[in-house]
Amino acid sequence: MGILFRVGHKPLFIPWTDVTAVEKPGVLSPKVILEFRRAPGVVLKFSKATVLKLKAKVGAGNVFESIR
């Protein structure tokens, strides 16, 4: 994240054991929906390419296991 957007914000902690990732078809490219067990109704939508980069960086255990 760019420095301009980081100012005044604490780092984001994501307990990967509480996250479920589901791949869905998108209009232009596949999407991955992240759902959070401790925050029902809160979802994050990412492009599959972004999730593959995230998977390589954080190695989020089994969360992204099904995303290839």
Characterise the protein shown here.
- The protein is of the alpha+beta class and 68 residues long.
- The chain has a three-stranded antiparallel β-sheet.
- A hairpin with a 6-residue loop joins strand 2 and strand 3 (43-47).
- The chain contains two helices and three strands.
- It has a domain at 31-68.
Feature tags:
globular; alpha+beta
How much helical structure, as a percent, in the residues?
10-25%
Low-confidence stretches: none
Distance between the termini: 24 Å
The largest beta-sheet arranges its strands as: 1-2-3
Strand content: 25-35%
Structure class: alpha+beta
Give a topology summary.
Elements: H1 3-6, E1 19-24, E2 31-36, E3 43-47, H2 48-58
Antiparallel strand pairs: 1-2, 2-3
Summarize the structure.
The protein is an alpha+beta fold and 68 residues long. The protein has a domain at 31-68.
